[in-house]
């Protein structure tokens, strides 16, 4: 009997929304109450220490040991007042999760006497055992030790009873072992390059920060339903199962009223987030059944990345309290929309100007166009690297599926801005005549704001779309750590801005061109040379795949293929030039990501083989036996005439045998390919083998299993079906 399946459905139907104990305060009052913000810090430490922390945040200044002691002492008092008993360095290793190792403040000092201890040394640096985190060979080459170091730019927070201190995680020899370190380095490079360029337009600008607003999509599945699916439990996605008669075609879920249980979950999640300083703002149903989205207000990118990592952790904890498994997988259900995490990206000056937002004056607009066009050029030059930054085994299933941007990187600008670029493309070579300049300023550059306010058209099929005052990188996967795409995007744009500055300066110095003229000249060339990357049409269409091919744009549909761009000479040079990663770090990361890919496909292969062999085939045989009995009974009753009455049943018996045979043969063949792949030593070849030799069997096995699902008595079928997973509430 398929008991687990029916018990799961029953359990789900019996669920009631969990009442949330909402704190007796408005959300605006709860905001950041569990965060050691700078305004809180002010009350807990001497002025000298406070100023040092602010200088560290704003200018990256070092904090000495004495000051660190003062900061630690303040942090400890605050954390204890919040009920904390432990502290941890909180970091984002390359496993894709967050890591913590809790230590108690408590320390015995004499016979029967203890104190609460947390000093500057413990705040600033720790030495977790690095050997259980991926290091891509850095460990072998150097030393097993790694250490975490305090990142004062991301404030400490209390979660539960633990004080969490955001840190970077590096090897003993200084190589980055986490997501945060290269991101911080890229942001630093961006600050320098963007400030230099922004100062062409405004000498008051001394700093540029990158802003990120992510939008997190996810599915909620009842824990009982999830537990009835071994594939979901072990691989995060459904590996077999026939589509339900009703999916998302009616689009009746999107923006619909949020189901009560989901809403109760969201409320509790939001309260936790708000207390942790994550400025969550928007919640709504997504397109697929049981799919939702949560988005905060944008923040400085390093903080936004920390907040997203924290969110993913908090989500699964709160989800468990509401009997939900939160699915962050990019494509849990074939045939139904997957989940992404749009990264809205922009640049903001210390004078409060969004560099990707058109301004009020032609001068401001020229600044906007400069950053806008340089971004397009950067994406054109480094499209493959950008593609690599979002590659993962999970995202392979989503990119290029019907609802997600394709694996081809292109940029969408909208009709109006495309027209502006077309005009700029016609700017004269060399110095501009006064008439031409006036015309440009008045009718092209000067017109931008009114155009944009009224007409920001949206193209939801583009992987990288301009949306009025920011770019939206839409190809990022829902389970990804945003640090990687953000690190790449900021590095490539920083590189582009450096080149731009060098070219403009050269025209000014060598050809004694006016600065404005030089800017127009360089931008014109960029518009011309980066044209291929611009695409305004339907990114989901087959036509685009053909068109992109003609344009010479790459379409890397698999992770092993896409990741190769990370280790190209060009990428290694780029990262080295910006001090973001050295060759050792780049190669290590490449290995780690390939390993992760291999392991994911390997796990899926094992689970699939197991379910097909131990669940599907025996069930099909059991059902087939009842058919055989039926046929035999017919024969007993009707003798030679039995086929008139048992013909259909007999056909079923044969068809079931055919599917069983196909499953058995393909599972065996897949296992053989896995064995072969496992013997391959080099990670890149091994990943290729898993991708091209092992994975193709998944589809075939699924096909035959799904056919059986349609034939076998529903009472016997052991696996919770699509319609039950997606519609039981
Ligand atoms: P949608 O893309 O769903 O239509 P919006 O365009 O309103 O929604 O915004 C989506 C996200 O973009 C939000 O998380 C918002 O905080 C973020 N965002 C808005 N402005 C910026 C900016 N200047 N920099 C980065 N992110 C931004
Ligand atoms: Mg969006």
Describe, in short, the structure shown.
The chain has 729 residues and is of the alpha+beta class. The chain is built from 28 helices and 17 strands. Strands 9, 10, 11, 12, 13, 14, 15, 16 and 17 form a nine-stranded mixed sheet that branches. Strands 1, 2, 5, 6, 7 and 8 form a six-stranded mixed sheet that branches.
Describe the structure using short key phrases:
729 residues, alpha+beta, Ubiquitin-like (UB roll), Creatine Kinase, Chain A, domain 2, Four Helix Bundle (Hemerythrin (Met), subunit A), 3 domains, 9-stranded mixed sheet, 6-stranded mixed sheet, binds adenosine-5'-diphosphate, binds magnesium ion
Q: What can you see in these coordinates?
A:
This protein is α+β, with helices and mostly antiparallel strands. The chain folds into 3 domains: 31-177, Glutamine synthetase, N-terminal domain (Ubiquitin-like (UB roll)), CATH 3.10.20.70; 187-581, 2-Layer Sandwich (Creatine Kinase, Chain A, domain 2), CATH 3.30.590; 596-727, Four Helix Bundle (Hemerythrin (Met), subunit A), CATH 1.20.120.1560. Helices cover 53% and strands 12% of the residues. The strands form 3 sheets. Strands 9, 10, 11, 12, 13, 14, 15, 16 and 17 form a 9-stranded mixed beta sheet that branches. Strands 1, 2, 5, 6, 7 and 8 form a 6-stranded mixed beta sheet that branches. A two-stranded antiparallel sheet has the order 3-4. β16 and β17 form a beta hairpin. α8 packs antiparallel against α12 (301-321), α16 packs across α20 and α25 (642-679) runs antiparallel to α27 (696-711). The longest helix is centred in the last third of the chain and has 56 residues, at 583-638. It starts with a helix and ends with a helix. 50% of the residues are buried. The model has no long low-confidence stretch (mean pLDDT 93). The structure holds adenosine-5'-diphosphate (ADP) and magnesium ion. Magnesium ion binds next to loops.
């Amino acid at each position: 009997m398929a008991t687990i399946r029916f018990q799961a459905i029953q359990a789900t139907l019996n669920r009631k929304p969990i009442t949330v104990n909402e704190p007796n305060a408005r959300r605006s009052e709860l905001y950041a109450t569990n965060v050691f913000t700078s305004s809180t810090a002010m009350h807990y430490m001497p002025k000298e220490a406070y100023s040092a922390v602010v200088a560290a945040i704003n200018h990256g200044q070092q904090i000495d040991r004495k000051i660190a002691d003062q900061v630690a002492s303040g942090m400890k008092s605050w954390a204890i007042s919040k009920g904390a008993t432990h502290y941890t360095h909180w970091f984002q290793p390359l496993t894709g999760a967050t890591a913590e190792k809790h230590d108690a403040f408590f320390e015995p000092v004499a016979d029967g006497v203890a104190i609460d201890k947390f000093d500057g040394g413990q705040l600033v640096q720790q030495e977790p055992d690095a050997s259980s985190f991926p290091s891509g060979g850095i460990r072998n080459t150097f030393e097993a030790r790694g250490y975490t170091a305090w990142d004062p730019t991301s404030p400490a927070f209390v979660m539960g009873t633990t004080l969490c201190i955001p840190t970077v995680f590096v090897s003993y020899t200084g190589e980055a072992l986490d997501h945060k370190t290269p991101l911080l380095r890229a942001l630093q490079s961006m600050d320098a390059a963007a400030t230099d360029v922004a100062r062409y337009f405004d000498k008051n600008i001394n700093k540029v920060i990158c802003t990120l607003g992510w939008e997190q999509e996810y599915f909620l599945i009842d824990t009982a339903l999830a537990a009835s699916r071994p594939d979901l439990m072990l691989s995060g996605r459904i590996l077999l199962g026939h589509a339900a008669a009703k999916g998302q075609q009616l689009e009746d879920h999107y923006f619909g009223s949020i189901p009560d249980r989901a809403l109760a979950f969201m409320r509790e999640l939001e309260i936790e987030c708000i207390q942790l300083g994550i400025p969550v703002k928007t919640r709504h149903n997504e397109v697929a059944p049981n799919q939702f989205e949560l988005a905060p207000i944008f923040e400085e990118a390093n903080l936004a990345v920390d907040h997203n990592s924290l969110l993913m952790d908090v989500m699964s904890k709160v989800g468990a309290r509401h009997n939900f498994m939160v699915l962050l997988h990019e494509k849990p259900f074939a045939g139904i929309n997957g989940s992404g995490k749009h990264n809205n990206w922009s640049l903001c000056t210390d004078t409060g100007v969004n560099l990707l937002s058109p301004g009020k004056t032609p001068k401001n607009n020229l600044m906007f166009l400069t950053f806008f066009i340089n971004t397009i050029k950067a994406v054109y030059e480094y499209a493959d690297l950008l593609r690599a930054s979002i590659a993962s085994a999970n995202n392979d299933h989503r990119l290029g599926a019907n609802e997600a941007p394709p694996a081809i990187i292109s940029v969408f600008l909208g009709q109006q801005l495309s027209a502006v670029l077309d005009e700029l493309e016609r700017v004269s070579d060399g110095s501009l005549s006064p008439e031409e300049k006036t015309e440009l300023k008045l009718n092209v550059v000067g017109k931008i704001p009114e155009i944009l306010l009224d007409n920001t058209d949206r193209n939801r099929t583009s992987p990288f779309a301009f949306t009025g005052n920011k770019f939206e990188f839409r190809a990022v996967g829902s389970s990804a750590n945003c640090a990687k795409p953000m690190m790449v995007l900021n590095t490539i744009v920083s590189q582009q801005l450096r080149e731009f500055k060098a070219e403009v300066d050269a025209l000014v110095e060598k050809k004694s061109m006016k600065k404005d003229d030089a800017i127009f000249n360089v931008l014109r060339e960029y518009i011309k040379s980066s044209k291929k990357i611009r695409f305004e049409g339907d990114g989901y269409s087959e036509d685009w795949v053909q068109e992109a091919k003609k344009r010479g744009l790459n379409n890397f549909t698999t992770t092993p293929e896409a990741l190769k761009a990370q280790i190209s000479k060009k990428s290694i040079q780029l990262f080295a030039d910006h001090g973001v990663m050295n060759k050792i770090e780049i190669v290590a990361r490449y290995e780690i990501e390939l390993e992760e890919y291999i392991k994911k496909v390997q796990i899926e292969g094992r689970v699939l083989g197991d379910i097909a062999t131990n669940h599907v085939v025996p069930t099909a045989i059991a059902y087939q036996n009842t058919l055989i009995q039926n046929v035999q009974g017919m024969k007993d009753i009707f003798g030679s005439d039995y086929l008139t009455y048992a013909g259909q049943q007999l056909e079923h018996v044969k068809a079931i045998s055919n599917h069983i045979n196909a499953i058995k043969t393909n599972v065996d063949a897949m296992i053989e390919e896995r064995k072969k792949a496992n013997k391959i030593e080099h990670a890149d070849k091994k990943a290729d083998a898993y991708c091209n030799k092992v994975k193709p069997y998944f589809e075939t096995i699924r096909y035959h299993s799904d056919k059986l699902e349609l034939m076998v008595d529903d009472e016997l079928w052991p696996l919770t079906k699509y319609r039950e997973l997606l519609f039981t509430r």
